[in-house]
């Protein structure tokens, strides 16, 4: 297959302040499925993912992202990327198989923006609740928003240009869109490892290791609208949306989990083939870039991070 | 980027009996855009494609597909695939740059089902009608169904098992789903080169080189419904749909162009990552596989080909 | 309010062959709510109806409709319509309050097509599951297709012209659309008492008292599509759709309950104000009238009745 | 038919500052159709209305609403309502047929909030662009948002309680929902003459005769989303939305015409039969009442009027 190296964002590990509140949010409202775990760590997944889990919640005193992990196609990719990361100047550690639950061996490093990133090529598969022969289109018992899959994550930190360069030059990501400051430098960079418009986004910011959001895929504008009602019915605070981004032209709602970690539901966009020209947004157009119809955004959108 | 080798279906070249009627169909109703051409050959594209064209219509005495062409990431892929095709036993010819309009050099061969397939890595880009800086989400002046992109093609012919093996073993496609006969052999095979559920489908059939349909992407179930009304308003004959496939769980309508070539509009489905388990459908479930809610299909669906 | 006389279809009383199967169909799949009842009679309602119930199922040896009942605005309307019905030549009986469960007094008569029709002005209200102060847009716990309200019913019988004349001249309905035979007579008549495109439809047919379908309202084309998937997932036989009627331009799916009574989900259409011109469809256009995009319909659609 | 008296909002007459800009807004972006008129007065309509026009634009030095007009079922209704209005204490004038373009005779009066209201029973019909025999579901050539019909208007002024009492007691409207202040008085009142959730809304406000918005019907959440993109693409300022009202549970976007008159696109809601219980919203819940998912609204929403 044409896909090799990094296939997709496979895992986001978040810190939450109150596990019961977090589980109510992610299971009952967002509609993720609990795979396993106790009060310390809980492993969740979207219903249409075949891998064991995609979201990990850890009880902690501060919210934010512990790490994000990308799944590669082959074990050999890990060696190649470890070499590249070392050559780029990062310190690379190795996690043995099963050091992360249900996972094959991993490599792990801190990118210039201060975020911990892991790569792995194997994870136990527990299926999407449907048989592999004559499956129905969805399983019984879905509840809440019920996205089919984790889509991307978005982070803030210093030296984002170097981080972006690491993703493109070492991990073979492509830049699909950029928000450009008047001096020509990049304020925000959207990086795709595959046909998704972005698998990770990086924004230049003075504090290292900050988390802006993780995003879940929905299938249509109407599902975005339905998500808005479920968020309202459950008194989940909404940051922005429902609206459509200028960047990536995706339908979106941003909202917060009870610990203040931002979530997004996301639908639409285009396929980011490597031969598709990259797009640039002027910082003066940031309103349109974030909320295309309204051309403005909540102040919280650029300032509240975990 | 993780994408290498064959990126996507880039071109379908069709024979049509009456060019004026064909242009009315593809431009005014389907909503493709005419790029260039005269009565002999006309080059069309979907509005959100950056490459020069994706559909070619040729005036002829019989309908059907002249060839389909896939775009590869790099020129070197062509050499690698030419080697592989020869090793597989196919005769491979080379087309020089510009032998096909606006195209870099190509390799060309006939797969075991009798279909002509071409590979190329370069094609002139004429954009999607939007600027690369601060673009709106769609250009002005779209008309008809107006799909954003060509999605896949579907063909019938003998020795489909060998053809499928060629696509998987030589061109690195993956099998995402199969329709299986009671003897365990494959009646229909859905082959993905990338994250689309399939870029080509192949059905076992006694006549070689037959064309079943080419498919265009739409963004939502409601756009499928809107397409149904536009087809009805223009008296375009509908074969099946609006409905949802069991296979690939995509929303769909099949309809015919004035020459009897089948078109599809297609929306939804899942991402066919290489680590997603392949699905199998029993031939006894073919009704559900094709038209999931109705569990039956028009007789024409399996029998009318060009 | 501008509304007086007959406000809407309030009740359809159906015969079912197997109550358990019927309850599984109407509660788990269609998503009606059980109000009360035992194996002999069960009373159901759509979630957004404030009145006590709208669908009654009765165990019987043959399927079909016992009667349909319309709710009038005021008790005095019953007297007025009783007078009119008698003057029209119908025999009118009176049912005392509580003779029908949770209902005020009723008048009852048989229209020329052989269908029993009842009128009432009062029914106990048990609410739509939401408070009357600061309500959410929908209650918790909806399942299945979950239509908000019963929309219309559709019947077949002889002397439909007289029946239609009764509805227009005595009960103040308007004809919104007609399907006309080549001799100028009416094959099917769509009758509105209010802004719905029709509250009852009547088709000329040789057998008296036949039931074609009752219809439930959904809010969007995408909800129609979702209903199609739920019907498919539960192996409910579909007669026609998802498609859009030419008549009334509503999105639709027809399907059968386990006893063979036809149901419809219905969305869209226009408001049938009394000053809106009536529409006529030629019998030669019946395909387009029933299934606008496909311009054909299942043979069962015109022939299977209960 | 059950409908008598006031059938619907039939006409909104607006003042605009720059007719060319207004026509670009209402014709090219909102997608109304120009019926007739010159630079002084232009008559517009929604495509699916059969009456001659529904929106009148008048060049003036200040924006706002000249009057709104409701269509009654019968000429005799005008006499009855004139009597009632006089008995209520209003001064009633009469406009002869053709004094308003294409209109039968009218009665005209100023309600306590300072708004001019007219009633008429006849208006020339110029059709919806479709034949009355075998019509397609929509005409060719629609552009912009293209709502099918004018839905309601919304006004601000003093003594709104008296105005609401006039609409209910004299014109037979019903109160479907109210926003209630802590002292039990009504801040905003939603009044229905028919099955629409409201045909006019009235908000208590110190200045008389102020206009908040007129609203156009769309058929689905996805059409609301599409409207948002068209507004964004044309740089039309958006006040609120896309979102869903708690009140009336309708999907909505509020935006401004170039003169500052607010428009709304509106979809969904329920049928306001006279036996449906009225709903009350606490002023403390105004965020949820206006923008259910976000539970907040732009400050402009309550303060910017014309």
In short:
Chain A has 306 residues and is of the alpha/beta class. Helices cover 19% and strands 36% of the residues of chain A. The first copy, chain A, folds into two domains: 6-120, Roll (2,3-Dihydroxybiphenyl 1,2-Dioxygenase, domain 1), CATH 3.10.180.10; 149-290, 2,3-Dihydroxybiphenyl 1,2-Dioxygenase, domain 1 (Roll).
Structure write-up:
Four copies of one chain form a homotetramer. Chain A has 306 residues and is of the alpha/beta class. Chain A folds into two domains: 6-120, 2,3-Dihydroxybiphenyl 1,2-Dioxygenase, domain 1; 149-290, 2,3-Dihydroxybiphenyl 1,2-Dioxygenase, domain 1, CATH 3.10.180.10. Chain A has six helices and 17 strands. Chain A has a nine-stranded mixed beta sheet. An eight-stranded mixed beta sheet of chain A has the order 2-3-4-1-5-8-7-6, covered by helices on one side. In chain A, strand 14 and strand 15 (250-256) form a beta hairpin. The longest helix of chain A is centred in the N-terminal third of the chain and has 14 residues, at 75-88. Chain A is globular, with a radius of gyration of 18 Å. The mean pLDDT of chain A is 96. Chains in contact: A-B, A-C, A-D, B-C, B-D, C-D. Chains A and B meet through strand 1 and strand 17 of A and strand 1 and strand 17 of B.
């Amino acid at each position: 297959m044409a896909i090799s190296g990094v296939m997709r964002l496979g895992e986001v590990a978040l810190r939450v302040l109150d596990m019961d509140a977090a589980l109510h949010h992610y299971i009952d409202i967002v509609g993720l499925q609990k795979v396993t775990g106790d009060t310390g760590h809980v492993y969740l997944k979207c219903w249409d993912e075949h891998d064991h889990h995609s979201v990990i919640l850890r009880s902690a005193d501060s919210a934010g992202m512990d790490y994000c992990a990308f799944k590669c196609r082959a074990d050999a990719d890990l060696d190649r990327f470890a070499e590249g990361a070392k050559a780029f100047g990062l310190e690379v550690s190795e996690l043995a198989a099963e050091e992360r639950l249900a996972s094959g061996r991993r490599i792990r490093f801190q990118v210039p923006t201060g975020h911990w990133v892991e790569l792995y090529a194997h994870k136990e598969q527990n299926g999407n609740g449907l048989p592999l022969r004559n499956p129905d289109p969805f399983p019984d018992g879905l509840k809440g928003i019920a996205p089919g899959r984790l889509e991307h994550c978005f982070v803030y930190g210093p030296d984002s240009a170097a981080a972006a360069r690491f993703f493109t030059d070492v991990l073979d990501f492509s830049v699909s869109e950029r928000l450009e400051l008047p001096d020509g430098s990049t304020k925000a960079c959207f990086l795709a490892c595959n046909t998704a418009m972005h698998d990770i986004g990086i924004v230049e910011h003075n504090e290292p290791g900050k988390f802006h959001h993780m995003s879940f895929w929905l299938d249509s504008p109407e599902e975005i609208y339905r998500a808005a009602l479920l968020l309202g019915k459950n008194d989940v605070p909404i940051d922005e949306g429902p609206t459509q981004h200028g960047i990536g032209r995706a339908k979106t709602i941003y909202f917060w989990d009870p610990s203040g970690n931002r979530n997004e539901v996301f639908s639409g966009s285009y396929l980011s083939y490597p031969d598709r020209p990259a797009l640039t947004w002027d910082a003066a157009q940031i309103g349109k870039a974030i909320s295309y119809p309204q051309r403005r955004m909540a102040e919280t959108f650029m300032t509240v991070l975990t």
